Amino acid sequence: MVRFFYFCLIFFLMITLLSGCKTVTVSRTMENEENNKVSSPETSGSALPETESNAVSETDANKAEPTAYPEFTPSPAAGLSVTVTRVPTPVFTPTPAPEPVSGTSPAQDQEKAASELMYPVKSFNDETRICLTFDDGGNQKAVKKVLEVLKKHNVKGTFFIIGKYLKTHADLWKQAVEEGHIICNHTQNHVWLTRLSNDEAKKEITEWEANAAEVLGQEYIDRMKREFPFIRLPGGAGNDSDRILKLVSEMGYIPVGWNLESYYAVLRHHDLKTESVDLIAEEVLEHISKKVTGGSIVLLHFNPYDTSRLDDIISAIKEKGLTMHLLSECLDF
After folding, report:
1. Are strands 71-74 and 82-85 parallel, antiparallel or unpaired?
2. Which 3 state secondary structure label does DSSP give 155?
3. Which of 93, 89, 81 lies closest to 44 in space, CA to CA?
4. What is the end-to-end Cα distance of the chain in Å, rounded?
């Protein structure tokens, strides 16, 4: 009887112990499964919403690279805990604006820089006056024709002569100055200045001055620099170049362009080797006569196409009530 009692007691205790172990095992299993739901790479990070603290405004986005979500760093005991580390958004620090040079404001500095160069004069404000200008000077026959026609009409012209032609036709240029025309710088060799370095471009201009001084005298060059310091850039190359305009301005020159010309409007549309000079010259006459207005700076060249009908061109200009003058008489500087 006693043995039976002890047997039942032991049996009951064993059942109790076994039930307790199962409860603990189930509890731990459920706890592990719950923790795994948080730390799983497939569910953490990418599913997190962007919070107010880490959202980046459009303005801030332009300042620094944003970090949209927190960076996750798993603990050594993976699956039991998660450590969240926020990466702070970089703070943009503006660079201080540079101080104005020499105590002037940026606007004053810009104005000063702009004043260091002279932009090309292409026309002027006047209802009745115009300027006739002639370029190059290599064609002796054309030069003689121009001097003859201008003298007939008592008209004064402005000549932009290439330096290498100054000595070639020295007597004609001396005659031109004696008759009241002015001769201005068109560089020594008619090279586009934009293709040259600053030193090479300066040499083109100063060599012209040296040749002109030999032909017309240094006194003429000094007067030119004072009273009519005009230069025409070969081919107009440099009229839009701040580098070249600054260079010629520093040398004391005023660049002169044009608003009416014959080459691009007429000559380049013809075969000058085969077509009749008379027909092309007639077209030049019609073009200039029709387009000229008060304030025009007319560009012609010492060639047969521009000079053959010069007499008629001047007559047509007069018929429009316009008078022809030197550039120095029409431009204020």
Report:
1. antiparallel
2. coil
3. 81
4. 140
CA 69/CA 42 separation, integer angstroms: 15
- Tokens (6 digits) for 56: 């980046």
CA distances from 32 to 44, 67, 72, 82, 206 (A): 16, 31, 20, 13, 93
Which H or E element spans position 71?
A: strand 71-74
Burial class (CB in 10 A: 0-12, 13-18, 19+), 302: buried
Rg (Cα) of the chain, in Å, rounded?
A: 45
* Cβ atoms < 10 Å from Cβ of 80: 14
Q: Write down the CATH number for the domain with range 123-330.
A: 3.20.20.370
Q: State the chain's mean pLDDT as an integer.
A: 78
Tokens encoding 54:
């880490």
* Sole residue written with tokens 């440099």: 238
Q: What percent of the chain has pLDDT over 70?
A: 65
Q: Determine if the pTM surpasses 0.85.
A: no
Reduced to 3 states (helix: H, G, I; strand: E, B; else coil), residue 149 is helix
- The more confident residue out of 173 and 55 is 173
